Amino acid sequence: MQILEFEKPIVALEEKLHQLLAESEQSDIDLSDQIEEMRGRLTETKEKIYANLTPWQRVQIARHTQRPFMLDYINHCFDDFLELHGDRHIGDDNAMPGGMARLNGEACVVIGHQKGRDTKENLLRNFGSAHPEGYRKSLRLMRMAEKFNMPIVAFIDTPGAFPGIGAEERNIAEAIAFNLREMMRLKTPIVAVVLGEGGSGGALGIGVADKVLMMENAYYSVISPEGCAAILWKHRKHAPEAAEAMKIAAPDLAKLGLIDGVIDEPNGGAHQNPEAAAMSLKAAVSSAIDELNKLSTEDLLNQRYDKFRKFGEWREEK
User: Fold this and answer.
1) Number of H-type helices and E-type strands within the chain
2) Residue 14 sits in which domain range?
3) Would 216 be classed as within a structural domain?
4) CA nearest 3: which of 269, 273, 249, 276?
5) What is the model's pTM?
6) What is the number of structural domains in the chain?
7) Is 239 within a domain?
8) Smallest Cα–Cα separation from 5: which of 53, 43, 51, 39?
9) Given pLDDT bands bounded at 50, 70 and 90, which one contains residue 4?
């Protein structure tokens, strides 16, 4: 189990609690008062730490190795998932799975980034960094959704699009830019959810949506905190300061109006209780789709256009 630096006080109290429980079972000494006191301290410490997370701490939770990934949420929230492969140009991309599924009985298309939990799976999934084929495949599936009047659900969880030579040769920038334009035109509801990492154009390439939601401990940014720190402070050790300055955490982005909602996670992060996190996500996505289904196609497209045109607007106060 991965233990984050700021969680060490919690782990220390949990170990003491286990020791007291073990000692109580192995002896005739009544330790119930000490056990209850320790449980109280543990609960209080958890609430204090998790209620006051910094943006950098949320980034660490977003990258937690046990955090639920796209396919985990599909297993918990959707029925009859059928994965479809290939972009019909070059090939398939395992970093960007997608296909058809049912959400509360309604047919939809689901796409998104998928990471791995071990070296073998990460190599298969390319650490969640999609190639041009992934973005072209996702657009192919989204156009299929438009054709058959199915809503689209996009799960974002990537440090960024793959920056390798092959991806550049096959025009990764054009693939992402083309998606941005075409998603703005799709005549079907689109809901995007940032599950963990929402890095740069790799995230935005499937993020042009009518409703953009974020898990409570996810982040969404044009650059990683480490990348920003390397540019501004010339050293990645300043990543915590960069995360704070960039306002990349879900609560900050909601206040700025750059996302449409924050999905609550279990105390300590989605990895602490994946089933509960999945139920929160399912409820939020279902509600968003129900709301969007009530709109006419014209209103849907106009609202989507207006939503993104407002980004970056500002005014001077005299």
Assistant:
1) 14, 8
2) 5-52
3) yes
4) 269
5) 0.91
6) 2
7) yes
8) 53
9) confident
